[in-house]
Amino acid sequence: MALCSIFCPRIPLRFRPKPVSSFLSKPQFSVSYRIYSSLQSTTSSTKDELGTISIGFLGLGIMGSPMAQNLIKAGCDVTVWNRTKSKCDPLVGLGAKYKSSPEEVTATCDLTFAMLADPESAIDVACGKNGAISGISSGKGYVDVSTVDAASSMLISKRIKDTGALFLEAPVSGSKKPAEDGQLIFLTAGDKLLYDKAAPFLDIMGKSRFYLGEVGNGAAMKLVVNMIMGSMMASFAEGILLSQKVGLDPNVLVEVVSQGAINAPMYSLKGPSMIKSVYPTAFPLKHQQKDMRLALGLAESVSQSTPIAAAANELYKVAKSYGLSDEDFSAVIEALKATRSQEA
């Protein structure tokens, strides 16, 4: 795998810079290797304090826009940035402020969230020209909720922490609808102090959060989860097509699956539209294939065999070659249809 050569082993967080702002003014915490989870919602007393911490949000795509919107609706002081400025306009209309670069956002905000499409974008927004590190400083926090590989997350973490700021990776499990409903799952790792400070805002955007220890663990967990999801969708697509070919009603298949031990919400959600060959985008296929690729790189780095995921990844690559990159990842079924027609 091309990614294997850049995948870095886990490294401990050795340094804890002392914060100078009121945002991160408590004594330092050492990294805990226990796993923390939370299903608790933000208390009313905490909500009253949300407006006192200025929040930045970088990246307003399918996921970032509803996440930022939920923060604004909760009464947070939010400043936004996106490469395509027009995507900021609806949020500015809801009360957000706008800045023209990531540097300006981190310079004016206590805590900045970043939701970017891929590792390259995440690194560029954090470390590139007029990037987040150019404006961030000691006592501030940077929370990257993008899905990237561990090596990229470690690189961003180091560059952020070199400024004296704190870093938390917090990739999310969930797609467009959970983002809109504030039902995401955050898989966090990094500075425990920042995790505690960011918790009320994570609770606005999500239904649960897990603290997984050192940077890299959150990224790895997300890749494993998405590898499983991508493989499940490919297998589900095979089942739909097989049921049709042997004369069964695929709609009944969806009902049967949805009531049995193998039920997953995405089956009943995606199945009906897949049968109609309609793929409204909640999670773009190109992002699913990117996550499969990164997961396979992760597996290769530790010599773990993943033949099922590897086969599924090939299907997503075929689907991309048919111009389905921006369709929902359930459009992977089209790759199987093409294979079937070629065999016929």
From TrEMBL:
Keywords annotated in UniProt: NAD, NADP, Oxidoreductase, Stress response
Limits of the 3-hydroxyisobutyrate dehydrogenase-like NAD-binding domain: 216-335
InterPro entries (UniProt xref): 3-OH-isobutyrate_DH-rel_CS (IPR002204), 6-PGluconate_DH-like_C_sf (IPR008927), 6PGD_dom2 (IPR013328), 6PGDH_NADP-bd (IPR006115), HIBADH-like_NADP-bd (IPR029154), HIBADH-related (IPR015815), HIBADH-related_NP60_sf (IPR051265), NAD(P)-bd_dom_sf (IPR036291)
Residues forming the catalytic site: K222
Pfam families: NAD_binding_11, NAD_binding_2
Source organism, top-level taxon: Eukaryota
Swiss-Prot/TrEMBL catalytic activity: glycolate + NADP(+) = glyoxylate + NADPH + H(+); 4-hydroxybutanoate + NADP(+) = succinate semialdehyde + NADPH + H(+)
Gene Ontology molecular function: any one: glyoxylate reductase (NADPH) activity
Positions of the 6-phosphogluconate dehydrogenase NADP-binding domain: 54-213
GO cellular component, one term: cytoplasm
Protein family (similarity comment): Belongs to the HIBADH-related family. NP60 subfamily.
Biological role stated in the UniProt entry: Catalyzes the NADPH-dependent reduction of glyoxylate to glycolate as well as succinic semialdehyde (SSA) to gamma-hydroxybutyrate in vitro. May function in redox homeostasis and play a role in oxidative stress tolerance by detoxifying glyoxylate and SSA generated in glycolate metabolism and GABA metabolism, respectively.
PANTHER family membership: CYTOKINE-LIKE NUCLEAR FACTOR N-PAC (PTHR43580:SF2), OXIDOREDUCTASE GLYR1-RELATED (PTHR43580)
UniProt-recorded name of the protein: Glyoxylate/succinic semialdehyde reductase 2
Organism from which the protein derives: Cardamine amara subsp. amara
Lineage: Eukaryota, Viridiplantae, Streptophyta, Embryophyta, Tracheophyta
